[in-house]
């Protein structure tokens, strides 16, 4: 595989994954993770739009409880099993309902296959996940680690570039302004990478949530980011497909962001453009420019 870098890339740094995020009326996650035509588990076996066809190096599932009485702290389930092979995932995603959840399947080419390296990552009421990689992470790792707030650094449990990026973004104000903070963090990664001779340090799509809102980013230094889509509003979908009984499972405010469309219904999913953040909240969707200025 040819990677978009002129710098000292190592094989261990390449991670390609698939993910989805849902917000809206409480929904059994199995509807999207297991049962959809091209569900996340189906994508773990066959990912036509992914850099890796099979994503079997563990998975993660993060969800906010239907009752937010716990301060809206999300729960996590991580496993190093392939998603298609884990009966606990089926049991769990059919037993609960959640108004906002993340799902992620992993294809790891180097960082250890262990639970602490599975997405999504959590800090207080925040969830974060990523599809792609930070090119040259092994040579940047020390610089990025020193950029993390000393009070946050002990909370890093795994060895992935994604978790390190999450804590750099937290240090730079993610909990106050997710869009600005992730932008600052990615610019810092690019500056750091170029000091080490890495031409295209950032590749990926990113999802962030505080439990009530969700932000989905598509950005790469090379301007050739991983694929990212979101669903059309459910009332509009019902008009487009009046005979689609499956749409009855979703409330009017249901919103899905995905690495790949979950079905083959024409027009059901809209591609998120390069250098864009899709903001999902009670008002629906909106697209905003993200790091569209030259670095």
Regarding quaternary structure, what we see is single chain
Strand content: 25-35%
Number of helices: 7
| SSE class | alpha+beta
Kindly provide the name of the CATH class: Alpha Beta
Q: Which architecture would the CATH scheme give at its second level? A: 4-Layer Sandwich
Average pLDDT value?
87
Overall shape: it is globular
- Measure the end-to-end span: 26 Å
**What string, H for helix and E for strand, traces the elements in order?**
EHHEEHEEEHHHEEEHEEEE
List the helices and strands and how they pair.
Blueprint: E1 15-27, H1 30-33, H2 40-45, E2 59-64, E3 75-79, H3 87-95, E4 98-108, E5 121-123, E6 126-134, H4 137-146, H5 161-171, H6 178-195, E7 202-209, E8 214-220, E9 229-231, H7 234-240, E10 255-258, E11 269-271, E12 276-281, E13 284-289
Antiparallel strand pairs: 1-4, 1-10, 2-3, 2-4, 5-6, 6-7, 7-8, 8-12, 9-10, 9-11, 12-13
Task: Characterize the structure shown.
It is a single chain. Residues 1-15 have low confidence and may be disordered. A hairpin with a 2-residue loop joins β12 and β13. The chain has a seven-stranded antiparallel sheet with strand order 3-2-4-1-10-9-11. It has 295 residues and is of the alpha+beta class. The longest helix is centred in the middle third of the chain and has 18 residues, at 178-195. It has one domain (11-289): Aminohydrolase, N-terminal nucleophile (Ntn) domain (Glutamine Phosphoribosylpyrophosphate, subunit 1, domain 1), CATH 3.60.20.10. It is built from seven helices and 13 strands. Helix content is 22%, strand content 28%. One of its GO terms (molecular function) is hydrolase activity. It is an enzyme of class 3 (hydrolase). It comes from Leifsonia soli. Pfam families: GATase_4 (PF13230). Residues 17-295 form the Glutamine amidotransferase type-2 domain.
């Amino acid at each position: 595989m040819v990677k978009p870098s002129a710098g000292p890339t190592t094989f261990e740094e390449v991670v390609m994954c698939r993910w989805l995020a849902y917000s809206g009326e409480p929904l059994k996650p199995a509807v999207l993770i297991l049962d959809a035509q091209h569900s996340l588990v189906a994508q773990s076996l066959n990912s036509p739009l992914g850099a890796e066809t099979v994503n079997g190096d563990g998975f993660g599932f993060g969800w906010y409880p239907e009752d937010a009485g716990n301060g809206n702290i999300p729960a996590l389930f991580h496993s190093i099993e392939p998603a298609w092979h884990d009966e606990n995932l089926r049991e769990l995603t059919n037993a609960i309902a959640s108004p906002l959840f993340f799902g992620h399947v992993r294809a790891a080419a180097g960082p250890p296959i262990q639970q602490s390296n599975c997405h999504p990552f959590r800090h207080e009421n925040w969830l974060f996940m990523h599809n792609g990689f930070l090119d040259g992470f092994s040579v940047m790792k020390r610089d990025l680690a020193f950029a993390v707030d000393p009070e946050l650094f002990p909370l890093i449990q795994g060895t992935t570039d994604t978790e390190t990026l999450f804590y750099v973004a937290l240090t730079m104000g993610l909990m106050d302004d997710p869009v600005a903070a992730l932008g600052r963090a990615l610019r810092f990664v690019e500056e750091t990478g170029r000091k080490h001779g890495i031409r295209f340090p950032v590749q990926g799509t990113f999802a962030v949530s505080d439990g009530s809102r969700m932000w989905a980013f598509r950005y790469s230094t090379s301007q050739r980011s991983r694929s990212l889509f979101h669903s059309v509003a459910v009332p509009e979908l019902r008009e487009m497909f009046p005979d689609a009984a499956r749409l009855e499972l979703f409330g009017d405010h249901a919103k899905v962001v995905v690495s790949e469309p979950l079905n083959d219904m024409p027009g059901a999913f809209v591609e998120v453009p390069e250098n864009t953040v899709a903001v999902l909240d009670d008002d629906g969707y909106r697209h905003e420019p993200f790091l569209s200025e030259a670095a």
